Protein: Lipase
Amino acid sequence: MKSLKRYQYERYAVLCNLAYPRIFKQTRYGFDPNGQRTIANRSGKTVVRVLWNKHQEEAIIVIKGSHSVSDWLLNFALWQRSCQAFGLDYSIHAGFHFILNQESQPSHKLDTLGLSLFERTMVIASGLIENGKRITITGHSSGGAIGCVIADALEQKHPKSIKRIVTFGQPAIGGWRFKKHFNLAHKTYRICCDLDIVTFLPPLPFAYWHVGKMLWLYNGRIFENTPSVVRFSRSVVSWLIRPFSYHLMSKYIRNKDYFDER
Structure:
């Protein structure tokens, strides 16, 4: 697995953050004036943005996470549903399955009724792949989770079409069969920040598994593939001792800038 470079991390993080506002001006970030297709959920709200530049090989699919009360409630659907309808031989979290399988309302003149969010994303991405693009998928929270499923389906339909997957604050997706049959672990980077509680969900040990390389951003450093138990323990200990760390002289020296020079 190649390393994730800083400029790549910053680019995907910015795009994930900008996926939430209703309006996104893609030309400000190097994409073509016509280089964006949005994919809406059952309520007509944009969930997926597909972005590209005709002069670049990489097209990027950006997927936002839970952004309504109903979306958050789906996180409590802790049972699993088969992905055979998506052409995949494993089961995933029922809430994520619902997000993928919900009917997508048209948001473009080329869109038609009757396609699910998964199907519409596959159609648009497949068209770009057939025109020579390779796909990077990035997403925040549940967006990262469903992005992994979409990427796996695209890779099966169009071998070697996926460049990388980068997720932020992503919960676990499926069971052991998912972990075993997911084909893109070597291209997947799962970014976790400090004690982000969502990255420990669902709270069912051995029923749900993560995939790919985990990069934990903690205490000014990047740790790779730190076990969840260790990550949780370090964070809790850090919280407990933090009040005492403010007594150190190094803290007083670091705060010298509060005083005016005289």
Remarks:
- The first strand starts at residue 36 and ends at 40.
- The chain has a mean pLDDT of 90.
- The chain has one domain: 6-258.
- Strands lie at 36-40, 46-51, 58-63, 80-82, 91-93, 134-140, 162-168, 188-193, 213-218, 221-224.
